[in-house]
Design a protein that fits this description.
With 185 residues, this protein is an alpha+beta fold. It has 3 helices and 10 strands; from the N terminus they run αββββββββαββα. The strands form 2 sheets. It has a 6-stranded antiparallel sheet. A 4-stranded antiparallel sheet has the order 7-6-9-10.
């Protein structure tokens, strides 16, 4: 291939890229595409071991938020604790969900304990998800609001050995306020 042919290919590719940019800028200027209304929006604010995440589900267009621990980090495999729903609605509104970050024994329970309070027990699915709803979820939320540390105990698949994970809840009240502000609850 001749150098001249190669250069003309690069020139055509550069021209096509410049044209695409000009078309998009022209559409924005003409108002055909709104720069303030992307197909998805994301909000993320970290409060210690807790994070508030909000976004729009592209297929449905619905906006949703979640309060969870720990914040996302590359290369870190920890169990996730998620608060969803309306914590102000008490027993009817909120759910506390745990997703265990390692293979679990579905026959062994998952325990969630705040400080020296009695542990809350749930049975995980085979995929390592456990959930508390109703009055138990409301009790967990009350303990999280007044506590300092959360301990999550799960059991490995085979052999069933206990795995403890700790999360600070020192900034949980601020994270909950942020979550409520974003969800309007």
């Amino acid at each position: 291939m001749k150098a001249r042919d190669r250069n003309s290919r690069y020139t055509l590719a550069g021209l096509a890229a410049k044209t695409a940019v000009l078309v998009i800028v022209g559409m924005l200027a003409a108002g055909a595409v709104s720069a303030t209304d992307p197909s998805y929006a994301t909000y993320m604010r970290i409060h210690g071991d807790w994070v508030v995440l909000c976004g729009r589900d592209e297929p449905t267009g619905r906006h949703g938020c979640v309060l969870k621990a720990p914040p996302p980090a590359l290369g870190v495999t920890r169990s996730e604790i998620e608060i969803a729903g309306d914590p102000e609605a008490g027993a009817a509104g909120a759910a506390v969900t745990v997703r265990i970050g390692h293979p679990v024994s579905p026959s062994s329970p998952v325990y969630l304990r705040v400080d020296a309070n009695a542990p809350h027990q749930a049975q995980p699915t085979r995929t390592g998800e456990a959930e508390w709803r109703g009055a138990e979820a409301a009790a967990i939320l009350a303990e999280l609001g007044a506590g300092r540390a959360l301990t999550l105990r799960s059991f490995t698949a085979t052999p069933a050995k206990p795995v403890d994970e700790w999360y600070s809840i020192a900034l949980f009240p601020q994270a909950l306020l942020d979550y409520r502000g974003k969800t309007g609850s």
